[in-house]
Design brief:
There is one protein chain. This protein has one domain: Rhopdopsin 7-helix transmembrane proteins (Up-down Bundle). 76% of the residues lie in helices and 0% in strands. It contains eleven helices and no strands. The N and C termini lie far apart (60 Å). Keywords: Membrane, Transmembrane, Transmembrane helix.
Length: 333
Amino acid sequence: MSNHKTLSTLNEALGLMTLTTVVGVLYTFSFILYCLIARLLYLGLRKPDGKRQTDFKFILASVIIVWATMDVALNNQYARIIYVDYRSLPGGPLGPLAQDYVSTILHIGGISTFIGGNLIQGVLLWRVWVIYSGTRSRCAIPIKILASFFFLAYAALDMTQLVFFWNPQAMESPNFARKVELIFIVALSVGQTSEIIMTVMIVARLMLIRQKHIKLMGKTDITAQYLGIVAMLIESYTLSTAWNIAFSIGYLLKNPFAQNFFSRSNVQIAVLSYFLVWYRVYSGRAWDRQTQTQLSTLRWERRSTQLADDNLDMEVVNNIEASPPTFSSRQNV
């Protein structure tokens, strides 16, 4: 009995710390990155043809930071209600009686998470479409279809999960609870798989382009930039992927500590990972500011290449240049 009470107290303490301190610290880092990105986007307005793209990027970044801000506000309100207003109810702040008073907050948070999560997944899907557009490879269309399928499957399962969680009272039924748990696990798995596969698709395309450059010109500083982009993508998305996997393990093991910590901070980790990619691209950390200029000035006739696809010229390899919101140097912002 004493051990159970101690574990319950530790779980409550960890939940409170996650809702306030951990979420607040992660949000601070995300907001700093947002401000730095906004500054870089503002500098991009000096370029005459960059206003439309800059406006779109700024609006998208602002929507993401608003989502993160809502998550912080909802978490703090949630913590105030269950840990301050109704802490003395039977079962404590994490008990069913206290949770009944935060159903509205949970509903708003569920909708917010659904919109924000699908927006980030949608941007990743858009990156796949952009980087595979223009290529004459036979696998380009199947790859784009597969990526779209994963996104639609994730969105459908996420919506189903949101609908089922809308009525907390129904969770009291064991059969219903098992169905919801199954849907939740499948949705989580599909979301993680979708992110990993689409990232691998982008990385594979970049490495293929790099190999073509090496065949044409040998190893140069330009080809090294592709490795920088690949490393940036892997580093940035590894954070959110590892976070989701850790939460999945905690959920399957029925570990309340892991569930509280990873689930409550998951939104902020997703936003932080997203802004890490943007900042490193716009600041030129992963793509030298002269790289696109050098690539765009190189034109190779079909007879000068020994690639398997003789119809490919440097225009196809330069397809990356057509996707400034995805991988652009500071000058293309």
